[in-house]
Amino acid sequence: EILFKIMYTIRSWKLWFQRENERLCKIIRIINRKWSVKMISRLLNPYFINIFLLIAFAIIISNNRNLKNRNKLFVVFATLNWIVLSGLRHISIGSDTLAYFHSYNRTLWTSWNDLFNNFVEIIIHGSEGLGKDPGYYIFVKITQLVTHNYQIFLVIIALIFTVPLGLWIYRNSKNSFISFLIYSVLFYSFF
Q1: Measured in Å, how far apart are the chain's first and last C-alpha atoms?
Q2: Could you report the per-residue pLDDT of 65-75, keeping only the tens digit for each?
Q3: What SS3 state is found at 19?
Q4: What is the C-alpha to C-alpha distance for residues 180 and 52, in angstroms, rounded to an integer?
Q5: What angle do CA 101, 105, 109 make, to 5 degrees?
Q6: Above pLDDT 70, what percent of the chain?
Q7: Is 87 exposed, middle or buried (CB count within 10 Å of its CB: 0-12, 13-18, 19+)?
Q8: CA gap 142, 139 in Å, rounded
Q9: What is the three-class DSSP state of 124?
Q10: pLDDT of 96-141, one tens digit each?
Q11: What span, in angstroms and rounded, lies between the C-alpha atoms of 41 and 18?
Q12: Rounded Cα distance, 68 and 66, in Å
């Protein structure tokens, strides 16, 4: 009978350890799965991919001694990279892109006469109730002569901003990779 009790106790402990081990393994799997998904989603963030591409391209170019104008090639790649990232972003990206999307669509149905009257009223008479960026609406209307697609409008804005930035970095920076990396890490979120 004592042997039976000992065997029963050992068997119940064994079952208890198995259950606890399964429960612990389940918890570890859930933690690992969530961590992996979070980590993968962070690494697949377009901004991290962009920075990775900048680093990879800089390494490839710096290791290829046969290339002439390596700096120019890198600046062109980095500029195009930022134009694509900025211009092809979804309207849900950024704190005000959706508001600009609605403004873009409203401007589509606003007459030129109303836009110019608004411009004159704000610039000359200082009427703040009509808005603060009257030139923006005229610029939007001009781009709408070419296209009504907001995504193309974002690409045009990205070109207007990023091409001069790339030219400035090319002409004034001793290390264009570091300049683009600093811009990517510190200042891109403001654009």
Answers
A1: 80
A2: 787 888 899 99
A3: helix
A4: 12
A5: 160
A6: 70
A7: middle
A8: 5
A9: coil
A10: 888 888 888 888 888 888 888 888 887 777 666 556 777 888 899 9
A11: 34
A12: 6
